[in-house]
Amino acid sequence: MRYISTRGTAPVLSFEEAMLTGLARDGGLYVPETIPTLTHDQIAAMNGQSYEDIAFTVMRPFIGNTFTDAEFRQLIANAYGGFGHTARAPLVQLAPNHFLLELFHGPTLAFKDFAMQLIGQMFQLALGRKGERVTIVGATSGDTGSAAIEAFRGLDNVDVFILYPHGRVSDVQRRQMTTPTESNVHALAVDGDFDDCQARLKDMFNDFEFRDGVKLAGVNSINWGRVLAQVVYYFSSAVSLGAPAREISFTVPTGNFGDIFAGYIAKRMGLPIKDLVVATNQNDILDRCLKGQGYHKGSVHPSISPSMDIQVSSNFERALFDAYDRDGNAVAQLMTELSEGGFDVSQGAMQVLSDTYSSGRASEAETTATISDRLKTTGELLCPHSAVGVKVADEQREEATPMVTLATAHPAKFPDAVEAATSIRPPLPPRMADLFEREERLTRVANDMDALKSHIKGALGL
Ligand SMILES: *Cc1c(COP(=O)(O)O)cnc(C)c1O
């Protein structure tokens, strides 16, 4: 299995190389050259299997000879062994034929743990046997950073630096990043918004001297390994609801387009997915684009679902690559236009996108109303991101097809928004109940490449 860049000119890599690299050297994102498919019988056989067994079947075709079967099974077992639920990704029913897929039973209470815990394991084994060390730099709107720090803290071959927008993450998210005591963990509070953090990260990757000097590696959702790990729960949940004999639809609270793109990969692999619904908050650039209005950047409006506050949705590039028939030149051209403000999607590509995805948005008031209404009608306490999904799913679902809405975070990760909607302050699970007593450690940095680079080099002793 080989990996190619969405901009067409970076070297073709193996799974291991693509995973350890993150962003391609031509600025693109790595995607598999071909998408392997599973047969109807292989999917049917997942019925009743453990999450870990399903994970092995789904991911194995993508990893080539990076790990042996025994190694890969062990990595999967290590990754999910620390989750707080034996089903790993349990389904809960909200209404007739509407289900919530709870993806928040990992160590940092958001779905990012599914990918990050596995990436941590894969990095450790791959780097350890090569005797190499890398510097992971990630940008986060809150959940990726905490998941990355949790996955890499204390590992021998890795330093991890996380850039987060100062003052724009929740207290729980911040404390999950600033309270680990391991010396290989560095939380950097950037004076800017998430798009600034993401832009500085891309600048670092495009500065080859720095990139090679510190052996930069990326674990943002641009990392193919992350998308891959997220494909698994589409299979596990769909099979629980009757796939492959029955079609299932999914609604996904979306920001950087990694999670929904994993759903698209599941569909391409043969899972009978009917609708893939992109749900956005008031930062609805993706909803507008998928409705044919082009992709034109504005400014970010901070919302109660901050992990979806975004204008530049990185993984959308992967969707565009397929919509433009895998034409790397066309994608590179669009991304140049994007850096100058935005682009319009060609008619042919728009047709492909609307055949693949539908979309909707939820305002702040609608999100709050959904949290409060679902508590009354089902007893479920939704986090604001999941509520965005539930609201959009309710508008789009058809009676005949089961709809699964992804619950992307635990309500206790966003207690202010949940309390404002319901008057209930959701408690943290017991294993992290002392989070607010732990000491914080962070560095405030300017939204400036030179300041960031010199801080990172200094911390590494270079
Ligand atoms: C990251 C995140 C999202 C958005 O996921 P993408 O893969 O970036 O589209 C939604 N909800 C929560 C809670 C998140 O942490």
What's this, in brief?
The chain has 462 residues and is of the alpha/beta class.
According to CATH, the fold-level topology of one domain is: Rossmann fold
Bound molecules: pyridoxal-5'-phosphate
CATH architecture of one domain: 3-Layer(aba) Sandwich
Helix/strand-derived category reads: alpha/beta
Name of the top-level CATH class of one domain = Alpha Beta
Fold and architecture overview:
The protein is α/β, with parallel strands linked by helices. It has a domain at 87-106 and 224-422: Rossmann fold, CATH 3.40.50.1100. It contains 19 helices and 15 strands. It has helices spanning 15-21, 40-44, 51-59, 69-81, 112-130, 143-152, 171-178, 194-206, 208-213, 224-240, 258-268, 285-293, 316-323, 328-339, 347-356, 364-378, 384-396, 415-422, 449-460, and strands at residues 3-5, 30-32, 91-95, 98-102, 134-139, 158-165, 185-190, 216-217, 248-253, 273-280, 295-296, 342-343, 358-361, 403-407, 443-445. The strands form four sheets. A six-stranded mixed sheet has the order 3-4-14-9-10-13, sandwiched between helices. A five-stranded parallel sheet has the order 8-5-6-7-15, with helices on both faces. Strand 3 and strand 4 (98-102) form a beta hairpin. Helix 3 (51-59) crosses helix 4 (69-81), helix 4 packs across helix 5 and helix 16 packs across helix 18. The longest helix is centred in the N-terminal third of the chain and has 19 residues, at 112-130. The radius of gyration is 20 Å and the shape is globular. The model has no long low-confidence stretch (mean pLDDT 95). Bound molecules: pyridoxal-5'-phosphate. Pyridoxal-5'-phosphate (PLP) binds at residues 110, 112, 143, 221, 253-259, 307-308, 385, 408-409.
